[in-house]
Amino acid sequence: MSESSLERVPPEVPSGGVARARRWLLEGLVDSQGRHQGPHARTTGRTHSWWQVMCLTGVDYFSTLGYQPAIAALAAGLLSPLATIVLVLLTLFGALPVYRRVARESSDGSGSIAMLEHLLPWWAGKVFVLVLLGFAATDFMITITLSAADATAHAVENPFAPEWFQGNQVGITLFLVTLLALVFLKGFREAIGIAVVLVAVFLALNLVVILVSVAHVAENPLVVTDWWAALNVQNGSPWLMIGIALLVFPKLALGLSGFETGVAVMPQIKGDQTDTADKPTGRIMGAGRLLTTAAIIMSTFLISSSFVTTLLIPQEEFQPGGSANGRALAYLAHEYLGNGFGTVYDISTICILWFAGASAMAGLLNLVPRYLPRYGMAPQWARAVRPLVLVFTAIAFLITIVFDADVDAQGGAYATGVLVLITSASVAVTLSARRRMQRAATVGFGVVALVFVYTTVVNIIQRPDGIRIATMFIVGILVISAVSRIGRSFEIRATTVTFDRTALAFIEDDAESGEIRIVANEPDDGSPEEYSSKDAAERRYSHIPIDSRIIFLEVHPTDSSEFEEELLVEGVEKHGYRVLTVNSANIPNTLAALLLQIRDQTGVIPGAYFEWTEGNPVSNMLKYLFVGSGEVAPVTREVLREAEPDAKRRPTIHVS
After folding, report:
1. Angstrom distance (rounded) from CA 270 to CA 328
2. Between the CA atoms of 643, 650, 567 and 583, what dihedral angle is there, to the nearest 10 degrees?
3. In what order do the strands lie in the sheet with 607-610?
4. Is residue 318 within 8 Å of 168, Cβ to Cβ?
5. Is 348 helix (H, G, I), strand (E, B) or coil?
6. Inter-residue contact 369 to 34 (CB < 8 Å)
7. What band does 24 get if pLDDT is binned at 50, 70 and 90?
8. Which pLDDT tens digit goes with each residue over 309-357?
9. Looking at residue 436, what DSSP letter applies?
10. Helices 191-219 and 50-61 sit at what angle, rounded to 10 degrees?
11. Is the pLDDT of residue 45 over 60?
């Protein structure tokens, strides 16, 4: 077989400052399939132990300790510890089993979205993925802005902070977002090493704060008695408390963040020597350890921090404007360990919250190039890191300004994005178990999926601002995708074209005579009459000499919603006629790609012969956009014109 890559590269531009800026921006535009695992990576290079990679996801997951206890107290009040226990149970017995299965079935880091990608056929599947990407974008973008805003809150509330920090939360948050963008614009190669240090220091400091707080509770047992008495006064009975906790815990959904990121970074995990591309057992086991260890560590911190913050901090301090709002553990650090230790804690929290934005940015840079350019729903430059960083930074600026860098105001949108992704993952593994006829797993995952559906719905009802923001992201992605798909209609879409031996022999035989004539034929019944009548008609109306050899070319339509394709051209003889056949989602673009490849393969510029398409030109163009057929001849010519600016080297199109 003969294969050639048609990978598209950025066009050359004149030398100078503009050219240098363009080359710098498009550095990293290296993978035509959008499969790179994060910033500036052609392939995954050095891999790491699972616990090191856990720290990379942990800057997102563990950093929520900076604000989760305060948000839980604000949402559930004195019931915060009980609601947190419900959340932990859902984490350990719901989200964890779901994502361990996702890790087994998408070890390349594509996650649950890829598992659902082909759940629906044709355009419905693409729209479904775009909607999920909208929620993912909500999750990751709000992670960036919310984490930066909470880092700002820790800085502003520090007793040693300059006076001008007060009232400048938006400016400080924008500075942190800008700093994050600069890191990615320069390169992001040492992320795991930085993450290990940040996570180790942050967890160690939190452990100290919680142990000191527990000791203080032990010395003052009245705080437990007073808390329990207040609970009974408010709620009446333990059963009522449990019921209310079950209703309230969806507000604490921020504590579930990080699972999707944990799967996305799987290619960074070092596997066993026996691992293969199809069966990376060691990597999958490492991912399982990563997810389980992270969930256990976080669950322990969530429960303990919820208890000590609820018992030791007055409820009014959690309210907007209170000293513990968005920073409950930092409040305890300053209260019981002094401002010196508290400042060290604040610096650690600021760093990990800022770097949590880096984890989210890496997630976005992994997701967008994986899907949108491949669907034709983003420009080619969307495969490069730096332009995307600038786009995401601009969006983060807008979100920060709109929400006035308020952590509480962004919590609903964050929780909505997290919950929808986890719900989609639970649905994906349920369908996977059903497809494999695993009855017990199907029932178990089905129950988990229903619980997450309930949690998501309750969160949306209680905090409708979250779904409104997510809807804005979804609509934005859908509109941009539609515009991009239409704008890229006349591109060469094939990434590779491969001829089998017979097909290659056909074109090389004709190339020896210095002339290759390709007749486009719409496959019908495959009868001898079909080919003989087509041959006679083309020779008569297109004036092809009777002694000139022709090759029929047939495109068999597939899923027209696909954009990029790897084409396999097969040669067959039918009733004495030579025929090239290829399966493709789009007819005109495929014909153009094959004609260019024949030219490059043989050095002979081929001529292609078409019949005019019957019907209204407008309806034919719409048919082309959505079905991939329609007005074939003019569109093929236009694709060739855009792909080959030199008319003398362009395959010729004859229409009769």
Report:
1. 37
2. 110
3. 2-5, 494-499, 565-574, 577-584, 551-557, 517-520, 607-610, 652-655
4. no
5. helix
6. yes
7. low
8. 999 999 888 888 888 887 899 999 999 999 999 999 999 999 998 888 8
9. T
10. 60
11. no
